[in-house]
Amino acid sequence: MSFVTLCGIARQWEGQGGVQDINLSLPKGAFLSILGPSGCGKSTLLRLIAGLEQPTEGKIMIDGRDVTALPPAQRNLSMVFQSYALFPHLSVAENVLFGLKVRRIPRAERDTRLNDVLDMTGLKGLEQRKPSELSGGQRQRVALARAAIAQKPLCLMDEPLSNLDAKLRNSVRRDIRALARKLGLTVIYVTHDQGEAMSLSDVVVLMNNSRIEQIGTPAELYNTPASIFAAQFIGEPPMALIDGPALDHGADYTVGIRPESVTVVPAGKGDLDVIIEDREFLGNGTQLTLIHPAAIGLAAFLPDTIRTDIGATVGVQIPAENRLLFSALTGMLETKPAQNPMAHIKPNSASMGGHEAPTPTQPVKEDL
Amino acid sequence: MTDPFTLERRRKAIHGWLLLSPALILLSVFALYPSIATVWTSLWSRGTRRNPSEFVGLENYQYLFDDPTFWLVAWNNFLYAAITIPISIALALSMALWANSKLPVRGFIRTAYFTPTVLPMIAAANLWLFFYTPSFGVLNQIGAIFGAAPVNWLGQPSTSLWAICAVTIWKESGFFMIFYLAALQTIPPDLKEASDIEGASAWTYTRRIVLPLLMPTTLFILVNAMINSVKLIDHLFILTKGGPSDSSKLILYYIWEHAFAYFDRPSAAAMTVLVLALLGAVAAFQFVMLEKRTHYR
Question: Where are the annotated segments for Disordered (chain A) (predicted)?
């Protein structure tokens, strides 16, 4: 049963920007991330769901109701803003209680809920502080508490961690996940950080250039990227791309390979001879950045015991079963890797090519 | 003398004084010295060629308090402030809220509201003189269409002060609106969105979020309006000259009359001292009282 459904949503400003052709459906209790580079329309999509923007086309359903024309307050959702949007003149407690007071919830219930939420977010003892007297992480928690106290089934989050430092980001990330589980929230989470999207979500929607590039579980996005864009966006370092002819595949293909599948062998013994450009010590191994005229972003991991010299020529083996073949023309995935027969991919109709038949995107419900 | 530490300290002291001197000189010449001189003058009698001025203590103040015109003028000024300040602030706020919303003609509206402030005082007063003129003035002509009897707005004691108030409100509110507009634009739009999502009405948002965030601006405007209300003089020169029978005379005009029409400097000085004391007290009260209830970011 689908809780949030978007049908053919588009929002354009003078025929450009915004989002186009968005079809999406997600079940109750799911954690969905909208991932993409800046300017791809992911925040616009979230604001459309929130009702802060109106779509120029399409329909938005939340919990079986068509909410396309409804104002934000009637959509039964809460939202966490990137800037937190805390009211600077109100104390923590007043900020959190703002919505309940607006909705005239009786005082006794307000107090119990406030107590619960402050406990959950670890804000006890800070009730009377003003937002300006809080640290970034505490402000973030107040914003979360304000969303949680509303007890709305759907929670929208717009890059809620982007203003925090890396260490705090990881801890708040876990808190968000725990809070969502505890309250049984359906969460739609916008981020440009693939690490966040991959670690938090049940489903990831990868967006590019106003359209959905791929929808799938984090594992699907990692193992079977639907396009060259997805391959290059996901993974750290991302998938390497090698021109087809260099690996005997024909000029119509671009080969994608994850760095962990690449093995380094002595020069002349592998599929390609490459030059080591750089070496990064990672603790449990070493990451090599490799150069080959036919490859982009080629990298490999080595156990730290093996000595390598920058500038040396080595061979690399690109195992056939781990290769992904993309059409060099359209950028779409052509062949699935042999070792991954269970993976189920549903490439989106949207692409850079734009000459294929306009088949609608399949919703992802069966994957959940 | 040659101790480098002492030299360095002296160098810093000279720097400090150099940085301080522009403000110090300007304030001393144009604010401190005149204030002290005023207090001093107010304690001396009016000197003529035959009777040189002599120290009379508080006699000038005594004379002032016995003068019924002074009390009338003070009362006029109080009324004038009590009417123009709240109305012009309320108008400024509503105009700013309106001009800040997403209107197609926003730029035009802002300019239109601000125009009265840009007009020179004398020109504005002449404009209103034309409005208020009995019989063929704009107001009376409009009144005549509806069959109202002509009113000499500026020429009768019962209406002259109100006519002056109307001009001030017209002129001040556009000016204050600019401050409110600037303050409104510093309120991040996502506060509005957050309160929309919580289901707050536009009125709730304005009352609970916008107005408290505008408090520092309101305080600033209030102090300014208060000062302006005792500073008004140029309208009076054109419109009423304080008449008829002192019904529209305000304190600064009265001071001016004493100083430059009757050449009674000590009385003028005494009045100025009283005005200074009152304004200082009001400003101090406002800043102390409102500071507690005002949120500064």
Answer: 346-368
Write the burial class of residue B33 (CB in 10 Å: 0-12 exposed, 13-18 middle, 19+ buried): exposed
Same domain, A174 and A67: yes
Token pair for B167: 């001009």
Please identify which residue in the block is written with the tokens 């020529």.
A313
CB A296 within 8 A of CB A290: no
Any idea what the Cα angle at residue B119 is, between residues B115 and B120, rounded to 5°? Answer: 165
The residue of chain A nearest to residue B211, with distances taken between CA atoms, is: A89
Burial readout B182-199 (b: 16 or more C-beta within 10 A, e: otherwise):
ebbeeeeebbbbbbbbbe
Read off the pLDDT of residues B210-248 as tens digits, 9 standing for 90 and up.
998 888 888 888 888 888 888 878 778 777 777 777 778
**Radius of gyration for the alpha carbons in chain B, expressed in angstroms and rounded:** 25
Q: Residues A275, A315: one domain? A: yes
**pLDDT tens sequence across A287-296:** 888 888 888 8
ipTM of predicted complex: 0.75
Q: What radius of gyration do chain A's Cα atoms show?
A: 23
What is the DSSP track for A14-70? TTEEEEEEEEEEEETT-EEEEE--TTSSHHHHHHHHHTSS--SEEEEEETTEE-TTS
Q: CB distance A77–B199 less than 8 Å?
A: no
Domain assignment of residue A164, yes or no: yes
Partner-chain contact B295 A88, CB within 8 Å:
yes
pTM: 0.74
Report the C-alpha gap between A365 and A52 in whole angstroms.
26
Task: Name the domain boundary from A226, A252, A275.
Answer: A226
Residues in chain A within 8 Å Cβ distance of B195: 98, 102
Q: Which residues of B touch A102 (CB under 8 A)?
A: 195, 198-201, 204
Contacts of B190 in chain A (CB under 8 A): 81, 83, 85
**How much is the pLDDT for B24?**
93
Residue A65 has, within 13 A of its CA and on its CB side, a CA count of 10
Locate A152 and state its tokens.
């709305």
Q: Do B193 and A52 touch (CB under 8 A)?
A: yes
Candidates A48, A52, A54, A155, partner chain B, best to mutate (most B CBs within 10 A): A52
In what helix (H) or strand (E) does residue A144 lie, and over which residues does it extend?
helix A136-149
Q: Is the CB of residue A4 less than 8 Å from the CB of residue A61?
A: yes
The verdict on a CB contact (< 8 Å) between A73 and B191 is: no
pLDDT at B291: 67
Largest CA distance in chain A: 77
Domain-embedded: residue A363: no
- Chain B contact set for A150 (CB, 8 A): 198
* Probe site for chain A from B190, B196, B197, B204 (most A CB atoms < 10 A): B197
pLDDT digits 0-9 by tens, A41-91: 888 899 999 988 888 888 999 988 888 888 888 888 999 998 888 998 899
* Residues in B touching A87 (Cβ below 8 Å): 191, 194, 208-209
Distance (Å) from the alpha carbon of A7 to chain B's nearest alpha carbon = 22
User: Do the Cβ atoms of B297 and A81 come within 8 Å?
Assistant: no
What mean pLDDT is predicted for residues B280-292? 77
* CB-defined contacts A:B, below 8 A: 63
**Is B295 close to A89, i.e. CB distance below 8 A?**
yes
Tell me the domains of chain B and their CATH numbers.
67-294 (1.10.3720.10)
The stretches in chain A having pLDDT less than 50 are 338-368
Closest partner residue to A85 (CB to CB) among B190, B199, B215 is: B190
Dihedral sign for Cα atoms in the order B130, B134, B136, B138: positive
